[in-house]
Design a protein that fits this description.
The complex is a heterodimer.
Chain A: E1 4-7, H1 26-37, E2 45-47, H2 54-58, H3 63-74, H4 91-110, E3 116-119, H5 141-153, E4 158-162, H6 169-175, E5 181-188, E6 212-217, H7 222-241, E7 245-250, H8 267-284, E8 289-293, H9 302-314
Parallel strand pairs in A: 1-2, 1-3, 3-8, 4-5, 4-7, 5-6, 7-8
Chain B: H1 3-6, H2 20-30, E1 34-38, E2 44-49, H3 50-56, H4 68-75, H5 79-82, H6 96-106, E3 110-114, E4 120-125, H7 126-137, E5 144-145, E6 148-151, H8 156-166, E7 171-178, E8 185-192, H9 198-206, E9 210-211
Antiparallel strand pairs in B: 1-2, 3-4, 5-8, 6-8, 6-9, 7-8
Classes of the chains: A alpha/beta, B alpha+beta.
Amino acid sequence: MRRTGFVYDERFLRHKTGPYHPEIPDRLVAGYKGIQEGALLEHLTLIPAVPARQKWIESVHHVAYILRFEEACLYGMTEFESPDNQMCQESYDIALLAVGGILAAVKAVMEGEIDNAFCPIRPPGHHAEIAKAMGFCYFNNIAIAARYLQQEFGVERVGIIDFDVHHGNGTQHIFEEDSSVFYYSIHEHPSFAFPGTGREFEKGANAGFGYTLNSPMLPGQGDDEFKMLIERDLIPAFGTFQPQVILASTGFDGHRDDEMSGINLSTECFSWIMERIMQMGDQYAKGRVISILEGGYSLARLPELIRNHVAILMGR
Amino acid sequence: MFVNKSMTRKVITGNPEMNLIEARELMIEHQIRHLPIVDQENRLVGIVTDRDIRSAMPSIVLDDYDSSDERKRLSGIRLENIMTRDLVTVSPMYTIQDALLLIQKTRVGAFPVVDDEKRLIGIISIRDLVRAFINVLGIGEPGTLIGILVDQKVGQMKRIVDAITEERISFGSILVARYWEEEDKRAVFPYLLTNNVARVKKKLQDMGYTLLDPMEWYIDKLPGNE
């Protein structure tokens, strides 16, 4: 059994996205239900979320952008920069809280209080660019976590694995010239899915060339193709890179019952990728795996998907 | 959409007295494949392509490729001796459509753009047209492509556009392609600037449209797999 941290705060439910949006508070309720039903809750270490200090948001985002987002919320605007980004007055505060929760989990892992962590936070982050909200994302949670690992704990090699069905354009762009953060993403091919980046030939730039790796998946290809790509691309790349900490952009929207995509993955496949990530965590990163929720919109499937995910983190 | 909006204006040029080695180095330095040759009044007199250069050079398998004798020989070859004089040029008021059709017809990869006095004012290449096409597709912006099968009859596009607009979704582009599998059908590909297409897809299906399987999408196909 591993000591697994759990960043959960009911305030994450207060980021409201209106009536016609897939990224809704019920997603977290569904995940929580799965964890409860799996009788996992009492074995998790609850990590309280406190708002992140602006310093850490600024480690990734421009100050002017941060202020723009804050002001939009204060003025009561219900969308920010695109109709995709529906929000409410509290969204800025909740986004800060989400980052704060993640950083608390990172700290607890680095100080050895827990072995790994699951952060089911809202809003998600991997589409957020340095100065642009995109695809339901405002602050790039995982990128801020990586900067925090580098600047606060001196971690030299951070490995990011993004298995949300959409490419994490924000995360890729933030680190594309940085050889200390390896960004790997597997996602539905950008000619068929949002956001239109993450093509096979995007491999980083300048000093970061070779530290970005994308495995686009064609529609309908399913578990076998997914597993083949992970074995072919991710496993050898991380074997060479040897990350000292692994951060996962965890998205469950590649599931075949999720209407947001078409790559046709089974529930079992999500367990498989998490087990594979845990193996790499043990091999290279002293088990330090921090999983941060991105997408996943099937309320019917999220309970089992998140239950399995957490059980694997816990080593049960 | 005239050529003068999309053409490259800062043209790298050569002159008839330039030698082969100078031209080759210039083209490598600027990563270009077409070198227009102009006289002292900037009037177009010819063009040299990377293929012209390569066919004037010795094979790279020869040992003396870089030898001083060989360099001497190559630097004695002037561009006026190898350049193409029989040129396809276009005017700045040619349209992008003209240029596309001309590329297809002539199989030439770049056209010098000249004014009425034959003075060189730009060059339009496949590369410029590719850039323009990427721009038209809207794929520089984040979005999601969907494919809809529609009857070839009046009013279909309005229904689709209205349905999508009602969902407050913006368009990056809309492509319409002939659909060879079925007579009188078109495939419509709206590129939607959103991550949120599940609802609109369902709505289109409820309206009676067939969404095409993404693995079967195409915008161009030779009839009968020629």
